[in-house]
Structures are given as structure tokens and as C-alpha cells.
Amino acid sequence: TRLLPFTLNQLTAQETIAITQETNSQFSEEERKFLLLGIAKSLCVVPLKIQNMTIGFLMLGEERDLNREPITEDKLRLATSIGEQTSSAIQRTRLYKQTEQRLMQLQALTTIEHAISNSFDSSLVFNILTQQAKQILEIDAVATQLVNSVENKLQYIAGSGFLTDEIANHRLGLGEGLAGRVAFERKFLFE
């Protein structure tokens, strides 16, 4: 969807404004629908900001009787404060999720390091590596394949999340398929 002129202006202006029936005639019909001006008699639009970047809006509308007091400067200040608290809560939630993700990654790396340093069983190490990679990357399936230099083919070592065991029995030649091309060209490829 394209940004409407008022909305675009609010993204850059970053200030709380009040729109009343007297001032809403400046908006196009499309923008009036977006801002719910056909329903609300007055509207307060508060930008939600994180580090001076607008990430959204808090739109406070009311269907007021014209005899009631319109949105005042005090109400605008209160709405701005509510917007700041909302932005702060969003930022704290984002930071908490990032911290949790980093902790999970560190725990997985510690598990892998522990397996490598304490086990001479390579299949155990590859199974742990595979499980941890699946968890860290939040993916559905992962396989570890090594180059069998005698056959010049990729050989399945460990895997998790596949619906069948076909991948364990299939050997790709170097240069065949995506995995074979990665092994042959020795660089990351994305498809």
C-alpha cells in the first residue's frame, strides 16, 4: 500500500496532532478512510518512535458529542506520554527477544564446544552439531555431509528434521545439486 500524504508527513514530522471535524476536510477520501474519519469525530495521532525513528502510530479516536470539550493540549500531552510508554514497551520487548536469542546461540555454541573437546566419537559430535544448528538457525531440517575423497562424492554424516531417510542414502557427486556445487566451488551459494 502506498503512503498517504498526511501519513507520510507524520512519519517525518514525528509530532502528536489532533484532527477534528473542522480540520479533517484537508484529507482525501482515501486518507479519511485510513484515518477512520468517517467514524471518529476527533482523532489524535501519536507517532511511536524508537531512537528518533517512527515505527508506527497510536491512533486515538472518539465519537464525541459536539457539546463536549474537544481534544485539549492536556489530552495531547497525555496521549504523547502514552505513545512514549508504548514505544518504550515495544523497544524493551525487542531487546528482550534479542537477548534471549543471543543467549540461546551462546548455549548452543557452548554445547558444540563441549562435545568437540570431550568426545572422540565423531558421529556424536556431528549429531550434536546438527541438532544445535537446527535450533540456533530455527530451521526445519539440517544435514551434515562430508566429501568422500575416494568416491569424490558427498557422504551423509548426520541429519535432523527430514521426513524420510532418503538423504542419508543419497550421495551427490561434487558439482551436482546445490550441496555438490558448494563443496566443489568452496563457497556459499543461495537458491
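That was protein one. Protein two is written in the same sequence-then-structure order:
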Amino acid sequence: WLCAFISAQISAYVAALSSSTVRSTTDTSEVGTRNGTVNSLWDFVQAPYAFTGSHGYTTGSKIEVWDVSNPASISSLGAVDTGTTPGFQIGAVNALGNILTGSGTEAPGIAVYDISDPAAPLLLDSRVDGTNLNYTALIYGSRIYNCERAGIRVYDFSNPNNIQLVGSVLTGGQPRYLVFKDGKGYCAPGN
């Protein structure tokens, strides 16, 4: 029941961000809104900032950065055009300290940004391996687990200026969401 509860809370939170509305955690009243230009798939909050990537089912290749320190007055800090550099649409974003990882959505590719200045993410490295389209990606330690259409590709970004492919696994389905516990990854397929 705890996993179902947490999953419902996360789904509600992601839905709130995706709908551009931030709601109170104690009631259902609207606290604030953001008016971005991309239809985000995977938002990531590393307080006081939120990072939104575009989603591959629509147009708009960018990562938008938001100041969410005051939910009643969310403000845009800037955006990074990912269509030009690194050259693919980024959907799943994950922040870890001063690093932001981005994974292609409905496109292959991963990228690592320096977000020491959150208003101006700086691309450190990117790479494209294969032709499988990505769906989501998650960070565990210094690795990015990229869920693609036929399997999971694993990258090491311990040196964020030199992303390394360290392995892959075929899943027998379309992997969607990964979770980790005690060093093991668990994945739910989308079909």
C-alpha cells in the first residue's frame, strides 16, 4: 500500500507540474502556475528550481528552468535550445547537485549539463548510441539508465565531460519506469 500511495502522490505532483498548475499539499487549491512553451513529459524539482524538458509527441526542443521558491509566483529563469545543441529533443531531465542530465524523448541521445548557474545550463557532453527511441531515464549513483524501445542502455557520467556507455540489456518489452532498491533496478514495461 505504501508503494501505491507514493506512486499516487508522485503521479499527482507530476500531473500538477505538467498541467502548469501547482497545488497546495494540504488541500486542492491552486497555489500558482507556470506558463512554459513546451509540453513537458518529465519535470524535475531541485529546490528552489524546476527543470522541464519537452516531450517527443509535440514540437519544441528545449529545457526550461523555473524559480519555484515562491509557488504563488513561479518565474522563468531561462531555456536551453536542445534542437540545435546537442541536436535532439530532451524529455527526461534529472538534477543531481550541479549536474543536470537529459535524455532524448522519442529520439536517441543523452546529455549532461552544468547547472552551477541554473539560469544558463552549460552543455558538458552528449552522445547518441543506436537508433532506439528513448522514453524515460533515471539516475542511480553516477549512472544514467536510459529506457529505450527495446531495452535499457546504461551510461556512466562520473566524468560529466566524457559520458561512457557501460552496458545495455534487452528487456523483452518497452521499458518505461525504473526504480532502484538495494543496488537492483526494477522496470515496468509499457506493453
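The chain has one helix and 16 strands. Keep this in mind for the problem set.
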